[in-house]
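Memo to structure team: turn this sequence into structure tokens by end of day. - J.P.
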Amino acid sequence: QVQLVESGGGLVQAGGSLRLSCVASGGTFNRYCMGWFRQAPGKDREFVAAISPTGGSTAYVDSVKGRFTIARDNAKNTVYLQMDSLKPEDTAVYYCGRSRNLVVGVVTTTREYDQWGQGTQVTVSS
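Reply from structure team:
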């Protein structure tokens, strides 16, 4: 059974930065695409970013392109989300997920993921 544990959330002012981490235990980390999603109160969970098993390909939702960067360290079983130039509308609980699909371009919906972490809160004040 794979376990995903996120960390790094917090309260930051608009324009600031945070780096989220997601550590995986169990399973074979480097065989799967990994993704970050977020969920604001009263809204559906939405795709943020995804990365291929080797880290060679990435995908982002348009609203974070140029501000967020997803990366992974397979030796540490960890995927990261570097968030810069944060905006109040980025406020949400951020979740990492594991997908069995190997094509990063299609892992942009929650149904592509079979494992999720517990989430970490990100709050951006104006």
